[in-house]
Structures are given as C-alpha cells and as structure tokens.
Amino acid sequence: MSARADNRGPLLERISCRYLRSVTVETAPAIDPIHVLNESERAGLRRVERGAVTRAALAGTLNAVLTGVGQLLAARVLGQRPEHATLAAVISYWGIFGVLAIAFAVAEIAFLYWDGLRSVRALSHVAGLELSSESNSAVALALARAALELPNPPDVTLGVDPSRESNKLELAIASAVYKLKISVTNFLFKALVTRALGRLATRWLLAFTAIPINSLWNALVCWAVLREARIRVMGPSAAVEMVDAAFAETPEPSVALVAATHQSLGSAVVRTQELHPNHAALIRAFRRRFGEPPAGLEQDDSRRFLAALAALPPADAKVVLRMLAAAAVLDGRLVRKERRLLSEAYRVVRVPSKLAAVKRLRHAFVRGEPISVDDLRATG
User: With CB atoms counted within 10 Å of each terminal CB, which end of the chain scores lower, N or C?
Assistant: First the structure.
C-alpha cells in the first residue's frame, strides 16, 4: 500500500500522504485499543472538528463576499440596463468576473484541502495513531483520500468487485448531482430571493446570496470529511478485534464456515457499492487468521452467499451473521441495501431480525466507544 501511495497514486494524493506522514509525534503508550476513545480523546477530537468546521465556513463566506464584490465591479461595464449592453460589454463583464471568480474559487479550494489535511493529521494524533510509522502507511493513504474527498478506488486485488450489483445509471446520476449541488442550490436560492422580494432584490443583494450557501456547504462537507477520517483512524484495529470477537467460540472453524464468511464480507462490499478502507482492513484481518478464499469461490455474489449461509449449522450461521454485521458497521454507514442484505440473512437462517442491535453497534463504533464481545454477539 505504501508503494502505491509513493509511486503510483495521483500526484495530489501522494503529496497529501507524505504530508500526513511527515511529522513524528511523541505519544504516550496506548492504554486502550485505538478504536476506543477515552473522554479526553473525544474532547480533543471535538475541538479539532469544531475549529476545522468554523474555518471552512469562514472560507466559504470570504469567497462568496469577494466573488460578489467582483461581480458588482464587473457589472459596471454593463451600465444601468444590462439587457441593452453591447456584445463587447458582455464579453468584458465575463472576462473580469470570470477571472476573479476562478481565482477566488481556486484559493478557497486550496485552503480547504490544506486545512483539511492539517485537521486530519491532528485527529490522528489526538487518537494516538502515529502516521509516520510504516505499519500505518495504508491508514495514512486512506486518510489522505478522505481529506481530499477522493472516492474509494475500485480494488479488485481482493477478488471483490464493488460495482457487481450496482445500477450504473444510478451511480452516474448520483455523481452528477453531487458535483452540481452547490451551483444548483445557489441558483434556486437566488431565484427564491428574486421572486420573494421582486424589485427590492437589488443587484447588490443578488450578488451576495451565495454567502449562506457557501458557508453552509463548506461546514457540512468539512464535518463529513473529518467524521470519515475519524472512522478510518479507528478501522484497522477495530477490524482485528471484531474478527477475534466473532470467532471467540469457534477458534477452528469448518471449511464451509470460512468460505461463507469470505462471501459475507464480499457481499457487504457489493451492497455498499465501494470498497471502503475499513472493509479492506476487515477482509485482510480475516484472511491473515484463516487464509485466502478457496479457488473459484465467488465472494461478491450475494445470492450465492445467502444460499451458503442457509446451509450452515445454526451455530456457524451466527458467526457469519456477526461478521456480516461487523462489515456493515465498520464504514460508519448502514445503507438501505446493507439493511436489506442483513434482513435477508436473518430470514434465511430463520432468526428474528437483529437490525436494532446492528444499529447500536454502528453507533458505538462511530462514537469510539468500547465494543464488547456481547455487543457483537447480539447481532447474530
């Protein structure tokens, strides 16, 4: 993983990863697992997150103000009646306003990325994770991608195709909507102001309608980035402990149980439609303990997984259900398709749905609270 970060990843990703690993911080010996955050650590994380969200909102406000001023300055070339402006005046307007808007946007994005990386590194230090360690290079890369808001790359090296059961049109539409969210929101908000205030909606007022939108989006995106970074910090050690907890009573599982568990993890990835770093950590932790999947096993076919699960003895089926629950919560989300997979799994083994226990497990993990063996057992 470190080789990829150093040699084959995108330039910005490589630079960000090296930045995160560039400083060695003396940390006290850990007195608890890294995914279990004590009260002092939680308070430190909240301080880092509040500061970053505030700075992101202020950056959005400043960009919107400067862009609005630039728009008003450029509008002078259009005169008092823009609808009668000459072609030369319109070109001059967009030449001035466009250059200023692009310059301000680039400056804002550069600051947000830099501050995001700095905040992510601060989060890892508060949680007691030393990113300069070679053993944490994969975590550093995952955190760099989170800070840069890069999607999780498709990784077929684990034998799982995250998009196997995805609707390609649905994914394309979701991506387009995500990219257009700020532009569309600004347009609708400006239209609402114009309609509500009519002629009172002056050029000055309309030029600055982006201020609340930019500030709000920046704050929300920054909060989401830091939440994701915190989840990725906690994921690798949580993955190891969840494998240990799930198999605490089955130290020597049968071949069928191991194969069904491989399929459960692949099916969880397929249902979320991406290979989250914590999913990869869970798959690798399971393989380190129980070996690679059997040759020819289709890990990413949820229908085959459910059939294999139904054929297991009840005690083995409970172990698989616990591993499926672990995979469902380790990425910090519990999406509709994951809930459906869990419901189908409970149904085929003829046990009552335990989605409520899975949701409690996810909530505890995201908050960095201790997760006991009993918590995981309750999901199976």
Answer: N
